[in-house]
Amino acid sequence: MGDGSKDGVILLSRILLMVLFIIFGWMKLTSFGATVSAMEGYGTPMPYLAAIIAVVVEFVFGIALILGIFTRPIAVIFAVYVLGTAFIGHPFWKMTGMEMMGNEINFFKNISIIGGLLLLAVTGAGRYSLDYKFFNK
């Protein structure tokens, strides 16, 4: 695979990794009160601050990763965030039945997403990114 193809795949990967987070980050932003209530329901410490962090990471950092700006550090921060949401939002080990199954699936989806984010942290954003435009001169 040539460098141009690799860079295109990296761009597509950034978009596919982030589309979920941008959609749900936007929903959290536009329904901020409900987001805070959900954080309270999960037993999240400091739910208002947690809701702000969720919006910033999911929506703002999601857009940043699609654009490919500060990709490596943001991907690492995002991976830590996704790990935290896996443990806080999907504690399947405390559940039974269908609730357990659904949360176990979502927990391991988060783990898989972390794999993609860590790979992005190692590879960088590629040629089709603001990182390349501003920092590779």
Automatic annotation (TrEMBL):
* Source organism superkingdom: Bacteria
Membrane topology category: Multi-pass membrane protein
Ranges that cross the membrane: 9-27, 47-67, 74-93, 113-130
Compartments, record wording: Cell membrane
A GO cellular component annotation here is: plasma membrane
Among InterPro entries, the record links this protein to: DoxX, DoxX-like_oxidoreductase
Q: Which Pfam families match?
A: DoxX
UniProt keywords, alphabetically: Cell membrane, Membrane, Transmembrane, Transmembrane helix
Instruction: Describe the family membership recorded for this protein in Swiss-Prot or TrEMBL.
Output: Belongs to the DoxX family.
What is the protein's given name?
DoxX family protein
In its UniProt entry, the species of origin is given as Serratia plymuthica
Gene that produces this protein: yphA
